[in-house]
Amino acid sequence: SICPTHLLHRCRGSDGIDSSWSPRRPSNENQAPGWPFPLPPAAAGYPFPPAPYGGSYQPSQGSDDDWDDDWDDSSTVADEPGALGSSYPDYEAAGGGASATVSRNLNRFSTFVKSGGEAFVLGEASGFVKDGDKLCVVLGPRGPEWQENPYPFQCSIEDPTKQTKFKGMKSYIAYKLVPSHTGQQVHRRYKHFDWLYGRLAEKFPVISVPHLPEKQATGRFEEDFISKRRKGLAWWMDHMCSHPVLAQCDAFQHFLTCPSTDEKAWKQGKRKAEKDEMVGANFFLTISVPTGPGASLDLQEVESQVDGFKAFTKKMDESALQLNHTANEFARKQVTGFKKEYQKVGHSFKCLSQAFELDQQAFSAGLNQAIAFTAEAYDAIGDLFADQPRQDLDPVMDLLALYQGHLANFPDIIHVQKGALTKVKESKRHVEEGKMELQKAEGIQERCNIISFATLAEINHFHKIRVRDFKSQMQHFLQQQILFFQKVTQKLEEALHKYDSV
């Protein structure tokens, strides 16, 4: 039987995972072959703002009674400081919305201290963790992995609707969420996503919580903005549901399952999440790692792997930024330049056919009509070029934006792990100098091991979903390109056949 929604964080032991597991996803007749989740509808892209590097996320502060407060009700104009001024439908700014490349954290251990990593490694964290709340890292075929969610699910985000309150004086947008494991729809506003993001970013120091699309964005029409945001939230939701730890987190489950109309239940769950003690240093106490022979990590090897990943994220971020810029520029040319040039050719053919009509010879009427048809074909091809980016380039830029949000998270995650390794090296030196007991140093190494297991599991998960997402998106991009050129070819063939009877 399907597990009830409250059954969370169940460990299946540390002897490995079911390698045949794959996410159960609904079929979608419109999806590309191999696409692991329904494609977001083709619409304009949206930028994700990166979190400030080396800084912690500051969640929106709200009281327990803020279910109906207005955090972002005027969500149609860019009137907020720091709003990104990119409007993808017009391709006004090349590379708009892309993050800067991954940067160094200036204060090397600020994240380590702030996340509670230092307190944990030094043995200063204490708390009781129930077995059911343990987050298990297991040894998979590619090294440490988060234990898979035994009851995978997904959640659609549909029908953004404008709702009002205070007898119509205030309006806001609510999104319909339908989690597959309950089938019960709930409505959430952006402020509820924002609250959840803040809780999770604070709770999980070594997990990359995907960034939300920004609070405000430029857009000529309200519909444009809502469409961008819905698509951004759909990507966000997919990455949340795909993460074995985030998907099973109490706060996320409360967000997905609490009835929209039950304010009391919402506030209770909200308070519970805000009073969660397993954050910061205590979060690391919840991590269960493999034990026994062959389960210990070589710290030098861990350091090498993490350094390799750091170099990878820097390169990926630079190339994502470059691709985003190139795609944006190419889209802009298609929407303006290519359309204009093809329609110029079409107009010239039209002028030729109009000139030919002046001959008033009966036998040349077919030729005149065929040339006029050719003019229309080129005009239509111009429109095809202008419409095409939203079918293929925009989805690629959407994916890049989401991943640039992830890449912005990793410097802090890496600093937590690096801080732990440094404490191990210091403790070894202190033992040699007679300043520390061996037992204490071993405890530090053991706790560093836990942080290393969790970091490697998160890196592994990132690569897994990256391969899944980029495979699917590249397939979608190429399929859309093929369809586009088939349409162009069809227009040209239709024009060619008009000359057969001349």
Automatic annotation (TrEMBL):
Composition bias, Pro residues: 35-52
GO cellular component: cytoplasmic vesicle membrane; plasma membrane
Keyword Protein transport: yes
Binding, a 1,2-diacyl-sn-glycero-3-phospho-(1D-myo-inositol-4,5-bisphosphate): 189, 191, 229
PX domain: residues covered: 153-263
Keywords: Cytoplasmic vesicle, Membrane, Protein transport, SH3 domain, Transport
GO terms under biological process: cleavage furrow formation; endocytosis; endosomal transport; mitotic cell cycle; plasma membrane tubulation; protein transport
Membrane topology type: Peripheral membrane protein
Predominant location category: membrane
A Pfam cross-reference name: PX
Skewed-composition ranges (Acidic residues): 63-73
SUPFAM superfamilies: PX domain (SSF64268)
Database matches in InterPro entries: AH/BAR_dom_sf, PX_dom, PX_dom_sf, SNX18_PX, Snx9_fam, Sorting_nexin_WASP-bd-dom
Cellular compartments annotated: Cytoplasmic vesicle membrane
GO terms assigned for molecular function: phosphatidylinositol binding
Region called Disordered, residue ranges: 14-89
Signal peptide residues on this chain, from the entry's feature table: none
Assigned protein family: Belongs to the sorting nexin family.
Protein name: PX domain-containing protein
Organism: Otus sunia (Oriental scops-owl)
